[in-house]
Amino acid sequence: MHTGGSKMAKTPQKAGAKSDGENPGLPSAVALDGLDYLDMGFSVFDADLTLILCNRKSGELLELPDELVRVGTLLEDIFRYNAKRGEYGPGDVEALVGERLALAAKREAHKFERTRGDGMVIEVVGTPLPEGGFVTTYADVTERRATEAALRDKTMILDNLLDHSPAMMVI
User: Fold this and answer.
1) Percent helix, strand, coil in the chain (nearest 5)?
2) Per DSSP, what are the bridge partners of residue 136?
3) Number of C-beta neighbours around residue 114 at 10 A
4) 72-126: per-residue pLDDT in tens?
5) Nearest to 138, CA basis, from 41, 49, 22
6) What is the value of pTM for the model shown?
7) Distance between CA 61 and CA 39 in Å, rounded?
8) Pairing status of strand 110-115 against strand 134-140
């Protein structure tokens, strides 16, 4: 897993961001370090599908090794790592990687949930960027989904009780 701070390529600073003084054009080290305290992971890939920014939580949630959570990593390499460990289900590794690369090449907004082998449910939301890359967020929604399932179960039990009760109940 990624144990260092947020990683960022040397790209021009967005308007309004403060520089650290040593590297004009880059956000401050404090700003970048602050990204590691977000409760969700995120990654930014450029138009060539190369990682240019990510935070620590992204590597933790996706259980990626440090070498894949570094600026310069190709999205293809992350897909291949996940395919080899069965994150995308059974199938030919290269075919699974190819399918995901084809989807990424479309640069379309997407939102889905993936249930990992250990039961963790991760919500993945991807948004294309005007320059051709995209930003993706990763959130652990396991607890939320478990709570929703428990509520559905309790509602079903209550509905069943009310439907099959011999006496009329007024609530």
Assistant:
1) 35, 20, 40
2) 43, 126
3) 14
4) 999 999 999 999 999 999 999 999 999 999 999 999 999 999 998 888 999 999 9
5) 41
6) 0.71
7) 10
8) unpaired
